[in-house]
Amino acid sequence: MLDFSSLLLAAALSGTCLSITMLAIWFTAPRARFVLTVACGILVLVAHVVLFWQYTKEPNPWLCEAVLVLLSLGFLIICMSAMQYLGVGNHGRVVLPTLAAMAACATFTYLGFDGIGFQITYATVTALLAAIGTMFWMKGDHDRRILLVVSFLSGACGLSFALCGLVLLVHGQWILGAAPDNWAERLNSVVAVACMTGLGALTLSLHHLQAQIELKAETMTDPLTGLMNRRALSELYGDRSFGPFMAIAMFDLDHFKMTNDVFGHPVGDQVLCRFAAVIKKYGRTGVDAFRLGGEEFALVMSRVTPEKAHDWASRIGVAFGTEIVPTPRGPLRSSVSGGMGFGAADGRTLDEVLAEADAALYAAKRGGRNRVVVQKKAGQPDAGPTLRSA
């Protein structure tokens, strides 16, 4: 059976190999900054383990200070990596309390109350691990199976550190003079090695998952406007049944080919981006915007009446008509034509609603452009005026 020193050295070796693996992954994918942060945090913990092993052999007050500081600092960095991955901002909420706890720990240890210093550090680490587990439990919206395992491992590791502090507290060990050695410390060594190894392996899985998500987002996003593309429209709504409170507005920028020919493609790109910005400005829950290609756009609206959908599309046309793009030839105003397609009580497919919106769009162009048109059909709810000038 491994003794306490062997467990510490095994933890240091495991952590070193894990951090080297993560650094190698980060070098091949520099955008995955959270992997680099995890690797740095683990390296700090490896330094803590090595110094703690030395401290068990030759107790020294300054070595004790370093051991406790590195333990809190390592888990603080790992907590920050979790915030990076989950997109949680305001790191000060975690950094400032941890630094305050480290300062308190250093003060008590300097005064000779190293037992209190260990208790403060264990409480700090427990709080950091609890924060990691809570963030992954509450904030994660990707693969829940991986995220819940991260929460479980963080909680188990945090509990083992809490037990270490609780044992010192119950026995009133305010002054130690040496490294604490009890059943909780030995249990913590085993649990911490297992959990940190598991968390490291899961970090690699999270990196792979994030890479997949980013790749999928890139393939479903128009790089110029930042809107979703036609592929995303098919992915999101290809199998949907469009009910009576769903609608699609198709837009086509008026005389866009002439804009490119006269003002140049860079100006044309600015016009496209301006229209995309207008759509985003009017965005809300239940509204998804897409650039279908060229100067064609689509807006899918859910939980709206036909009248409200038509009014929404018309407002976008009006707002875009007020946009001015500066060019070497002078200010440029553009307009847009739109057509509406609606769902039905018995359900309609995406292709059916798009075909209706496309037909209405061409009717808008034939009718003089700069308007949003609704094709009137028997049995279709009244969507307001057939033409709405933008």
Summarize the structure.
The protein has about 400 residues and is of the alpha+beta class.
Layout of secondary structure:
Elements: H1 4-28, H2 33-57, H3 61-86, H4 92-110, H5 114-139, H6 144-170, H7 183-219, E1 228-229, H8 230-237, E2 246-253, H9 256-263, H10 265-281, E3 287-293, E4 296-302, H11 306-321, E5 324-325, E6 332-333, E7 336-342, H12 350-366, E8 371-374, E9 387-389
Parallel strand pairs: 1-3, 7-8
Antiparallel strand pairs: 2-4, 2-7, 3-4, 5-6, 8-9
Helix pairs in contact: 1-2, 1-7, 2-3, 3-4, 3-5, 4-5, 5-6, 6-7, 9-10
- Please indicate the percent range of residues in DSSP E strands (runs of 2 or more): 5-15%
Question: Low-confidence stretches at least 5 residues in length (pLDDT < 50)?
Answer: 378-390
Biggest sheet features: 7 strands, mixed
Q: What is the mean predicted local confidence, pLDDT?
A: 85
Number of strands: 9
H/E series, N to C?
A: HHHHHHHEHEHHEEHEEEHEE
Coarse shape:
elongated
Distance between the termini: 81 Å
Q: What does the radius of gyration come to?
A: 30 Å
Instruction: Kindly name the structural category.
Output: alpha+beta
| Major beta sheet, strand line-up | 1-3-4-2-7-8-9
| Helix content, binned percent | 55-70%
Q: What is the count of helical runs?
A: 12
